[in-house]
Amino acid sequence: MLSKKMLSILATTVLSVGFVAGCGSNSTSGEDKGSNVIKIATQSPLSGGSATLGEAIKLGAQLALDEEKDTFKKLGYKLQLVPYDDQGDPKKGVANAQLIGSDKAVYGVIGHLNSGVTIPSSETYEKYSIPMISPASTATDVTDRKLKTVNRIVARDDFQGPAGAEYAVKELKTKNIFVIQDKTAYGQGLADAFKTAAEKEGAKIVGFEG
Predict the structure, then answer these.
(1) What is the pLDDT of residue 185?
(2) Order of strands, sheet of 37-44, starting from the edge strand that comes earlier in the sequence
(3) Bigger pLDDT: 13 or 23?
(4) To the nearest whole percent, how much of the chain has pLDDT over 90?
(5) Which residue among 146, 160, 181, 186 sits deepest, i.e. has the most Cβ atoms within 10 Å of its Cβ?
(6) Is a pLDDT exceeding 90 seen at residue 29?
(7) Which CATH class name applies to 4-152?
(8) Which band of pLDDT confidence, cut at 50, 70 and 90, is reported for residue 76?
(9) Residue-wise over 151-178: b if at least 16 C-beta within 10 A, else e?
């Protein structure tokens, strides 16, 4: 799990990239021209079973903004965090992304937690040219689509799956493995990568269920 400090560094990166991108944009609406407010949005589950992880993403972003606010104040800008609760739901994530895209003061997004929410929501960020960085979405499709605004700092399924398989077979000396996954974009992708790698390592997959 990422620490708040690591998430703070992540947020600072989004802040820098978003600020540069925003300065080069001519899409500012009349009501936002001359505004000195720079908003950084977060999208993560702030309610439901994954709320603890989602809250950590939000707090990490807030920490980064708190650390940078004096620097930006000297430049004449005020930093503001705008947290959104995606509820771990793709539809909610996309709806929030539309709201984020319509706010010209948002310069970047930190999120999402879930790959299944990141993938559809990132299509909207791409449409509005808003940079995003995910600290947790591992599905290969997140970055395989080559969207210009999409970034992440976590290892992909095709790295994590084989690493887990190697540990299970070589370190734990496991010969028979039953794989259970939760049918989410995250769970299925990671389980598929693990299964393939475990079989190459010589293990027998005795079951594979979602």
Answers:
(1) 81
(2) 78-85, 37-44, 106-111, 132-134, 150-152
(3) 13
(4) 81
(5) 186
(6) no
(7) alpha beta
(8) very high
(9) bbebebbbebbbebbeebbeeeeeeebe
Closest C-alpha among 84, 76, 67 to residue 15: 67
C-alpha to C-alpha distances, 61 to 36, 42, 44, 113, 180, nearest whole angstrom? 19, 7, 11, 13, 33
Hey, where are the domains in the chain? 4-152, 157-209
CB 108 within 8 A of CB 17: yes
Pairing mode, strands 78-85 and 132-134:
unpaired
Q: 183-199: buried (b, 16+ CB within 10 Å) or exposed (e) per residue?
A: ebbbbbbbbbbbbebbe
- Comparing 4-152 with 157-209, is the CATH topology the same? yes
Task: Give bridge partners of residue 176 from the DSSP assignment.
Answer: 204
Determine which helix (DSSP H) or strand (DSSP E) holds 42, and give its type and residue range. Answer: strand 37-44
Identify the band that residue 31 occupies on the pLDDT scale cut at 50, 70 and 90: very low
pLDDT, residue 35, reads 77
3-state secondary structure of 207: strand
The interaxial angle of helices 157-166 and 185-200, nearest 10 deg, is 50
- 32 secondary structure, DSSP code: G
> Taking 60 as the threshold, does the pLDDT of residue 52 lie above it?
yes
Q: Which range among 23-37, 97-111, 129-143 shows the weakest confidence by mean pLDDT?
A: 23-37
CATH number belonging to domain 157-209: 3.40.50.2300
Q: Is the pTM of this model over 0.70?
A: yes
> DSSP for 133-171?
EESS---THHHHT--TTEEE-SPPHHHHHHHHHHIIIII
